[in-house]
Design goal:
Helices cover 16% and strands 38% of the residues. It contains 2 helices and 14 strands.
Length: 249
């Protein structure tokens, strides 16, 4: 397998704000046509201090391999230890899949066999809640869906990861309310959950995100329903109050 990889690194440091933005591009054909960047979606309202997220791009087009990774890197947190932790977690997760493809492909790989790995991301800011969604598309020839989302929810005021239970007051039975809403919405769309047994309990670290003040509950393909449905999302009809808690209507 022939690979020629050019690495271009661009880092701009702004001393007055201590913000650093870096773009890394890996491309085995720097003089050829530039593949179109996956989209980066931004949405939400800005409250309080600025939140800055920069895209990092890695490309590798070689024999049997097509890689186009765009993912977020936070550059504006005061707590640099936490900022580095989030950025490293996202980058490491993606690099593991790239490395896996590189290990799979060898000189015996059939000529018509192509392995691909694409990522792009969405970012949503509402009040103190920042959500970074890394959309994953990993194709190695399997018949099952290899598309899913990695989701990072962050309180930008406290600069820490937030979990679903923290979005509700301690006295609120949020799990039953969410399960009830999911069950109703699934029935309306003829989704069969949990093989017909229905959803009884949420995962310990339930995936979710906040978009335009709405709570979205997310499930990866095959997590709660047959793979043919793909990834499932359910928008909760809850109201976000002034203190950052969701109220169940």
């Amino acid at each position: 397998m022939k690979k020629t990889i050019a690495i271009i690194s661009l880092c701009v440091a702004i001393a007055t704000t201590s913000l650093v933005s870096c773009t890394i591009i890996k491309d085995n054909n720097p003089n050829g046509d530039d593949p179109q960047n996956p989209s980066v979606v931004e949405s939400g309202e800005q409250q309080g201090r600025e939140v800055k997220v920069e895209p990092v791009t890695i490309r590798n087009n070689a024999d049997h391999i097509t890689i186009e990774n765009v993912y977020p890197s936070i550059t504006s947190f005061n707590n640099k230890e936490f900022e580095n932790y989030i950025n490293k977690t996202i980058a490491t997760n993606i690099s593991e899949y790239r490395n896996e493809i590189n290990q799979i492909v060898d000189d015996l790989t059939p000529v018509d066999k192509i392995y691909s790995y694409y990522t792009n991301y969405e970012q949503y800011l509402w009040g103190d809640y920042l959500t970074l969604i890394v959309n994953q598309d990993y194709q190695t020839g399997g018949i099952r869906s290899n598309k899913w989302k990695e989701i990072y929810n962050i309180n930008v005021a406290t600069e820490r990861i937030i979990y679903l239970e923290e979005l509700f007051r301690a006295t609120v039975d949020y799990e039953d309310a969410i399960i009830s809403e999911i069950t109703e919405q699934a029935a309306q769309k003829n989704y069969v959950l949990m093989g017909g047994d229905g959803l009884k309990k949420l995962p310990m670290k339930q995936k979710f995100y906040i978009r335009d003040g709405k709570l979205i509950i997310y499930f990866d393909p095959s997590e709660v329903a047959a793979n043919r449905y793909g990834a499932l999302e359910f928008e909760m009809p809850f109201t976000l109050d002034s203190e950052g808690f969701f109220e169940i209507n």
